[in-house]
Amino acid sequence: MIALDKTKTYLIDLDGTMYRGNQVIAKAVTFIQLLQKHHVSYVFVTNNATRTRKQNLAHMEHLGFSGIKEADFFTSATAAVSYMKKHSNEHYVYAVGEQGLFEAIGEGGYEIDKHKAKLVFVGLARDMDYQSYSEAARILRQNHALLIGTNQDRRIPEGDSFSIGNGAIVEMLRYASEAETILIGKPNPPMMEEVLAYVGKSKEECIVIGDNLETDIAFAKDNGLCSIMVCSGVHTKADAAHFRIKSDIIIESLDELYIK
User: Fold this and answer.
1) pTM for the whole thing?
2) DSSP-assigned letter for residue 130
3) What angle is formed at CA 62 by the lines to CA 60 and CA 65, rounded to 5 degrees?
4) CA nearest neighbour of 195 among 109, 71, 95
5) Using CA atoms, how far apart are residues 100 and 116, in angstroms rounded to an integer?
6) What was the pLDDT predicted at 230?
7) Which one, 15, 93, 202, 231, has least CB within 10 Å?
8) Domains parsed from the chain with CATH numbers
9) Within a 13 Å sphere around the CA of 32, how many CA atoms are in the beta-carbon half?
10) H or E segment to which residue 92 belongs
11) Which helix (H) or strand (E) holds 251?
12) Residue 159 pLDDT exceeds 70
């Protein structure tokens, strides 16, 4: 059993840590109840740019979570828009994605125009087809636009299996268009910069909890945070044994964590 420091803010992953697709992960609900009971600060930090905050909340409530708020979610879509508003004066954009990304773009005050776009945001878009991806690649190349990958996940947990992640799509578009590319989501520094600003905390005040060595745990390690890896999603203890990325703590289940 591992005792948590209740003075810290926990940056908790969703896919593979709280749930796998539409299946809640064992002990995830009781773990969040534990944090709530002891008034421990947390925020769900996800590379998934498909859902809006409202949709994230509805999905988790459907799975049995309670006591959470829309403000408890911080997505790679939010991070991507916030980061680019600080580092670019461009107004016209194009986007590949779902409602979560388009909501963030709207809140950022951008105007979508494929003819004038100098920024192309790319999030997972599960209904896109070959022609749509080809158009995005043409816009990138013809407009000399910057490709902004909301995240670079290789794959995402779906029930007992996996689906292709947004990182594979971003890499396809980068390769096809030869566009300059910025990657925002975990494990990249822009995501850390934006989430720390969102929670108003320093690195020393936060701990990352996640299932993916390449995203969640690297997010912590590459940016100077402590991490807890739970073997409920993408990677296992066997994976951890041979990966260069090492978590500070590895657990099989969230019920191995407690608060004094």
Assistant:
1) 0.91
2) H
3) 50
4) 71
5) 23
6) 95
7) 202
8) 2-75+187-258 (3.40.50.1000), 77-183 (3.40.50.1000)
9) 25
10) strand 92-96
11) strand 249-251
12) no
